TrEMBL record, chains A, B:
Keywords: FAD, Flavoprotein. PANTHER family: BLL6224 PROTEIN, D-2-HYDROXYGLUTARATE DEHYDROGENASE, MITOCHONDRIAL. One of its GO terms (biological process) is respiratory electron transport chain. It comes from Simplicispira suum. This is Hydroxyacid dehydrogenase. Residues 34-215 form the FAD-binding PCMH-type domain. Belongs to the FAD-binding oxidoreductase/transferase type 4 family. Signal peptide: none annotated. The keyword DNA repair does not apply. Pfam families: FAD-oxidase_C, FAD_binding_4.
Length: 474, 474
């Protein structure tokens, strides 16, 4: 292996082939589930260097783990414990290669941090709408590799829908120059979308051409207290009809999730949480291309109609940006509040929106029967059918023991229920190393067979992020 | 082969295995470029029957040409002249399987005619936005197979963006049940988008779950006369900023294209075409979620600003639906008007919007140098960067001879120019049998190698629409 490391050092410079010291930022996954051991962490500075590194790995038979900000929630971007895998870090490739105003596109390198992509768009007077909790650390390459979701999917789609072109280094170390800024291009198979969401198992994304949008003239936030999940879904339909594409956010939060925020962060002042009959709260965002006054008038009309229809018990429209941020802050504090309450079993499921009320009702009952006193931290992107339906130990119980002893059973129950309602066990977090067995259990065998054929065709020596997503190949 | 035909007759019934009589509706392509000869035309009635037919074809080694409405503009859905290929017609599978109001989705079978898909959505008070010239004949399966574009791409995307789930029969005759109505689902490779746009070469799409949208409260059309392509692009930017997602159509038409409509269809009364300095007209569509009055006020504000900025010389907003239809009718009459003027060499290119003015200026000059007196019928979906940049013989010339003698040279010149400006030779019509060599010339060799690997992995015996898209395989 010393020949191999020498080759790498010659390709990218000795300073960028790291084998010693504390490499835990590269070797440990975001949620601390696995601390792996890399043969080396390699940090190429250009697409040509990435291609050369991949060719060297192919020549020496060394598996590659592509890595961006290493914020995977599914253990998708860290090396295993064998010490045989190279981490290919894209963080030195962080340039914004260009912005095309009239074409509403931007070309960025894979290692660019999402927040910097957003900022570059903003400084051109435009919007890159992808937004998620890890945006200060995650990279656009990782967002593409996992087809990240976030809070703006309702209007703008997942990362997949925000990408027009890719530059990719293949498992053979060739460069596919697919950085097109075209909204229509039917010239063969859709390699772009095949690479997006393949979690580094089919190649290394080195750059992307992304869609940009005009910035809305005003963005307004409202908070509505609703009596049930059925009424939350009814409010969504009403909001879609009345606001059309201007409805850019629709987040739901269960009463218990909000009570944890109220308990652990009393300074946040959660609206209506004590009010009788309030089972859920909905956070709505309206992005208006005209003016704040116009946005406010439309929001008020919507909420009045919703109040009359019985979907909404009480509601408030943020008076200013600070208030809007406070409301979003409550939503974003749920993960922290539940952590303060103790570890819980996290899920990232999706279900057709029409079936969410029945899914929640059924699954709540199943879990309560299985685990008396169980507490459900239910919140998520209702507008996309995506719930983080998290399961917390009974009050006063040992949360660590609960997680250790019950996680498999609880997952089985929740994933089974999601599947029964036509849903998915992974809405936006992907498969990684964590959910390989879950994929095998819940994905269609015909689909799995096609995926394996594609993996073997494009990466016959199984060098790209091996074992992730599809597991060991035959 | 008589065993084979007997097998097919047993599977779908003798009436649905056609080998005699006039089969030209199945054997001749839409534009009459190729009259093939099928071994048989088979019309299964269900997904199970499709799977059984595919298994029979696989067992007997018979190639399959999947076919919907047979409206391909690239000879993608007709058999070759060998008499060895089976046409697998999906037209008996035309059911709307269901509409889910709250989830805004609809599940339809592949053979459902696009207009019927639209109508089913409308009768549920919802919108399926895909719209294109052949909508009365083409099927949704064909739209998906070719990733069709049309006039609403600017707001709603291509067919790809309108599909959430697929049911597909694989080349082995297995059924992939992927009819999910989920907006977020990251559970392995994106087989859906791989199948979409693969033109029947990777499997047979038998059904799809499609996105629906709330119907806009009002749809308003305007017609603007502009002095140049630069100003048409400037008007687009202005309209995107001012109307946001409500801008659902932005079509450009060159002066010569419009003069042909005025000449051959004088009853249509083309606005502003005689006015001095008018080089292009733009048709804008505004879909408003509030009211017609609101839509009109916004359109007027936009056009006033555009007039002041010098993008627009004159403009009219349709007073009512009839006027709007008349304006759209002018746009849609261009293909007919140019046909009446004589055959021409058609293109379906895309270029980044910012580069369209330079592309047109350069290519106009190149063509005029090559063919003195050449006439350019330039029109298309400017909002998507998609031009039908068609080349007409010099006035009084022999159009048929022109097409015969000059098509290859002209294509080479136009495709080369599109490539030089970062564009594509096929924006929305696909590759089919017609553009196999063009794909080889202009698609990246690295991408082509990946596509061939995928084809061989999924269809190792090369039975699905062989030769189309990628050409003969090694």
């Amino acid at each position: 292996m010393s020949d191999f490391l020498t080759t790498l050092r010659n390709l990218v410079g000795p300073a960028h082939v790291m084998t010693e010291g504390d490499l835990s930022a590269y070797e440990r996954d975001w949620r601390g589930r696995l601390h792996g051991k890399a043969l080396a962490v390699v940090r190429p500075a250009s697409t040509d260097e990435v291609a050369a590194v991949v060719r060297a790995c192919a020549a020496f038979g060394v598996p590659i783990v592509p890595q961006g900000g290493n914020t995977s929630l599914s253990v998708g971007s860290t090396p295993d414990t064998s010490g045989r895998e190279v981490v290919l870090s894209l963080t030195r490739m962080h340039a914004v290669r260009g912005i095309d105003q009239a074409n509403l596109t931007m070309t960025v390198e894979a290692g660019c941090v999402l927040q910097n992509v957003q900022a570059a768009a903003e400084s051109a007077g435009l919007l890159f709408p992808l937004s998620l909790a890890a945006e200060g650390s995650c990279t656009i390459g990782g967002n593409l590799g996992t087809n990240a979701g976030g809070t703006q999917v309702l209007r703008y789609g997942n990362t997949r829908e925000l990408c027009l072109g890719l530059e990719v280094v293949t498992p053979q170390g060739d460069i596919w120059h697919g950085l097109k800024g075209l909204r229509k291009d039917n010239t063969g198979y859709d390699l772009r979308n095949l690479m997006i969401g393949s979690e580094g198992t089919l190649g290394v994304i080195t750059a992307a051409t992304l869609k940009l949008f005009p910035r809305p003239a005003a963005r307004l936030t409202a908070w509505a207290a609703v009596p049930s999940m059925e009424q939350a879904v009814a409010l969504l339909s009403l909001a879609q009809r009345s606001l059309g594409a201007d409805l850019t956010g629709f987040e739901v939060m269960g009463r218990f999730a909000l009570s944890l925020v109220a308990k652990h962060m009393p300074q946040l002042r959660v609206p209506f949480v004590e009010q009788e009959g309030v089972q859920y709260a909905v956070l709505l965002e309206n992005s208006d291309s005209e003016s704040e006054d116009h946005a406010r008038a439309r929001f008020e009309a919507l909420l009045e109609a919703a109040f009359e229809a019985g979907c909404v018990l009480d509601a408030v429209v943020a008076e200013n940006l600070t208030q809007a941020q406070q409301l979003w802050h409550i939503r974003e504090s749920i993960p922290l509040a539940q952590a303060q309450e103790g570890l819980n079993i996290k899920h990232d499921i999706s279900v057709p929106i029409s079936r969410i009320p029945a899914f929640v009702a059924d699954t709540d009952v199943l879990l309560a029967r299985e685990i008396p006193g169980v507490r459900l931290v239910n919140f998520g992107h209702l507008g996309d059918g995506n719930l983080h339906y998290n399961v917390q130990a009974p009050e006063g119980g040992d949360a660590a023991a609960f997680l250790r002893e019950r996680e498999d059973d609880v997952n089985k129950l929740v994933y089974g229920a999601a599947a029964k309602f036509g849903g998915s066990f992974s809405a936006e977090h992907g498969v990684g190393a964590l959910k390989v067995d879950t994929l095998k259990e819940y994905q269609s065998p015909v689909a799995l067979a096609m995926m394996r054929s594609i993996k073997q065709a494009l990466d016959p020596h199984n060098l790209m992020n091996p074992g992730r997503v599809l597991g060991p190949l035959p």
